[in-house]
Amino acid sequence: MARERREGRRRRRDTDVSRRDFFKTVGAGSVVAAVVQVGSDVDAQGPPAVGPGDVAITLTINGQRHQLKVEPRVTLLDAMRTRLDITGMKRVCDRGSCGACTVIIEGRTYYSCSLLAVESQGRNIRTVEGLAQGNALHPVQQAFCDHDGLMCGFCTPGFVMATVALLEKVPSPTPEQAKRALDGNICRCGTNIGVLAAALKAKGAQRG
Ligand code: FES
Ligand code: FES
User: Fold this and answer.
1) 8 A C-beta contact, residue 207 and residue 171
2) Which residues pair with 60 in a beta bridge?
3) How many CA atoms lie within 13 A of 72 on its CB side?
4) Ligand 2 pocket mutation pick from 187, 193, 195, 196 by most atoms within 8 angstroms of CB
5) What's the rounded Cα separation, in Å, for the pair 72 and 118?
6) What is the pLDDT of residue 52?
7) Reduced to 3 DSSP states, what percent helix, strand and coil does the chain have, rounded to the nearest 5?
């Protein structure tokens, strides 16, 4: 799973206009013409260039459609947290190394700090807010409580989403499979033993 995230980031670097390129380009008004030129190149290979001003987008998050306007440089994480008040996913490193912002998109985990909101359209984005059903916690959330899988809780939503993605694919993972799936997430409070226990003992987590 962590490997998928790394590969996903690598693919985006290879094929799309990168986030760094967006920052560089959008920040320099004098190169707007260059953006248009780049856009014509991109047209031939993929989606047309957008921006640099606000663009209207629609995000589908936990089954609900949200319409908003964002600059193309805005990440999915910031769009959710600062525009839509969906704050379960945390911004910690903001550079794709800690996993606190992990979401599930079409069954795969992604760092939402490393995806642009504009490129996240048309896909079903799942966050920790979509797990519980009423007052009933999702089995993975319950397992984190039962096995002391959290202390300050800041990393917890990301670990929970990575665990959910794992168990939906592999309902009874081995310890090695669980460790590998969760190695893209970091806990600075040292709850890894509890997190691993939760991942191995959560029951009925594959309902997603
Ligand atoms: S905040 Fe996204 S990986 Fe750390
Ligand atoms: S519980 Fe505090 S960072 Fe993980």
Assistant:
1) no
2) 65, 124
3) 20
4) 187
5) 6
6) 85
7) 50, 15, 40
Question: Do 68 and 155 contact (CB within 8 A), yes or no?
Answer: no
CB atoms within 10 A of CB 59: 24
Rounded Cα distance between 109 and 4, Å, is 8
CB 75 within 8 A of CB 116: yes
d(CA 65, CA 86): 13
- Contact residues of ligand 2, CB 6 A cut-off: 150-156, 187-189, 191
Identify the residue whose tokens are 């226990």. 197
Which secondary structure element, helix H or strand E, spans residue 64, and what is its range?
strand 64-70
In this prediction, residue 23 carries a pLDDT of 42
Tokens 């089995």, residue? 139
Structure tokens that stand for 31 in this block: 């190169």
pLDDT tens readout for residues 97-138: 999 999 999 999 999 999 999 999 999 999 999 999 999 999
Q: Check residue 45 and give its pLDDT.
A: 72
Closest ligand 2 atom to the C-alpha of 189? 2
Look up residue 90 and give its two tokens: 């945390």
**Contact status, residue 181 vs residue 151, Cβ threshold 8 Å:** no
* pTM recorded for the entire structure: 0.78
